[in-house]
């Protein structure tokens, strides 16, 4: 009997940072836009459950959000919003206290709901909150891949190192990819990456891969003000070209097939952090 080809799995990628202000949300939204332009089924999940803002960034006005799913009022497919260029947005809540730190029960509900999307996506980008709060650690631990966004600011590197250290020690994460944002040149980006990798190589047993860079772009504040994706409004701007290259790179990668047929977003072990 002929063996049926295995269906490609959704790639679940956390886009995260140790501190705010490094451009993580703009990267998440525009990378999803670029992937959608390449005919990939891309969803960006606004996982800043306390201060959601991707819908605002893209000029969307969702009627429902993740709060309604976790409250049992809606199914996850009912709250998805069509974004620009064919990308999908999973909106979260803002200013709701009980969403700031999800309970184990809420996480299990989210697990069940997200697994219903596994056959309809190629990429899920999780735009986490910044920092090392419980929700941030949870979503990073859950993702198959982690992109750590850093900027040239020294505090960005210090906080990125702290995030990597905690994910390694408490969640056994050993592979990270670094994306350097808001740089003037490729050389500056490599220097920023080198400073971070020297620290992780010396003190931690982890792999920190250089994924690329996004150039400083004067058009970005204009796009934010107009609530339009940078890649939609200024497709040939410096940052847009960098994000397009990043999307190309992701699309061309061969991904390890280590898992079963599920979305591989959550597994039982991440509900209880490791000691250490």
Provide a descriptive summary of the structure in words:
With 276 residues, the chain is of the alpha/beta class. It has a single domain, classed as Rossmann fold (3-Layer(aba) Sandwich), CATH 3.40.50.300. It is 40% helix and 17% strand. The protein has eleven helices and eight strands. The protein has helices at residues 24-37, 54-57, 66-70, 76-79, 104-115, 134-142, 154-171, 186-203, 219-226, 230-233, 238-252; strands at residues 11-16, 42-47, 81-82, 88-90, 123-128, 145-150, 175-183, 207-215. The chain has an eight-stranded mixed sheet with strand order 3-4-2-5-1-6-7-8, with helices on both faces. A hairpin with a 5-residue loop joins strand 3 and strand 4. Helix 1 packs across helix 11 (238-252) and helix 7 runs parallel beside helix 8. The N and C termini lie far apart (49 Å). Residues 1-5, 259-263 and 267-276 have low confidence and may be disordered.
Keywords for this entry:
single chain; 276 residues; eight-stranded mixed beta sheet; 11 helices; 8 strands; 40% helix; disordered N terminus; disordered C terminus
Radius of gyration: 18 Å
Q: For the terminal residues, how far apart are their CA atoms?
A: 49 Å
Major pleated sheet: 8 strands, mixed
The spatial strand order of the largest sheet comes to: 3-4-2-5-1-6-7-8
Strand coverage percent: 15-25%
Q: Into which percent range does the helicity of residues fall?
A: 40-55%
Question: Overall pLDDT, averaged?
Answer: 88
């Amino acid at each position: 009997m002929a063996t049926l080809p295995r269906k490609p799995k959704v790639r679940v990628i956390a886009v995260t940072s140790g501190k705010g202000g490094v451009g993580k949300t703009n990267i998440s939204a525009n990378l999803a836009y670029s992937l959608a332009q390449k005919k990939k089924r891309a969803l960006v999940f606004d996982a800043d459950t306390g201060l959601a803002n991707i819908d605002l960034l893209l000029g969307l006005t969702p009627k429902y959000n993740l709060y309604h799913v976790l409250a049992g009022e809606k199914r996850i497919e009912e709250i998805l919003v069509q974004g620009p260029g064919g990308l999908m947005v999973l909106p979260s809540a803002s200013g709701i206290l009980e969403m700031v730190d999800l309970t184990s029960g809420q996480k299990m509900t989210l697990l069940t709901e997200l697994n219903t999307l596994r056959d309809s996506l190629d990429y899920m980008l999780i735009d986490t909150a910044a920092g090392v709060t419980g929700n941030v650690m949870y979503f990073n631990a859950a993702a198959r891949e982690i992109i750590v966004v850093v900027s040239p600011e020294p505090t960005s590197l210090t906080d990125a190192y702290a995030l990597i250290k905690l994910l390694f020690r408490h969640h056994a994460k050993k592979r990270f990819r670094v994306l350097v944002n808001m740089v003037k040149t490729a050389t500056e980006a490599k220097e920023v990456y080198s400073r971070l990798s020297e620290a992780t190589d010396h003190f931690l047993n982890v792999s920190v891969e250089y994924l690329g860079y996004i150039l400083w772009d004067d058009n970005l504040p204009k796009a934010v003000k107009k609530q339009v994706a940078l890649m939609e409004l200024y497709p040939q701007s410096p940052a847009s070209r960098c994000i397009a290259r990043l999307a190309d790179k992701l699309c061309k990668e061969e991904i390890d097939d280590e898992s079963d047929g599920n979305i591989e977003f959550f597994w039982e072990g991440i509900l209880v952090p490791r000691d250490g």
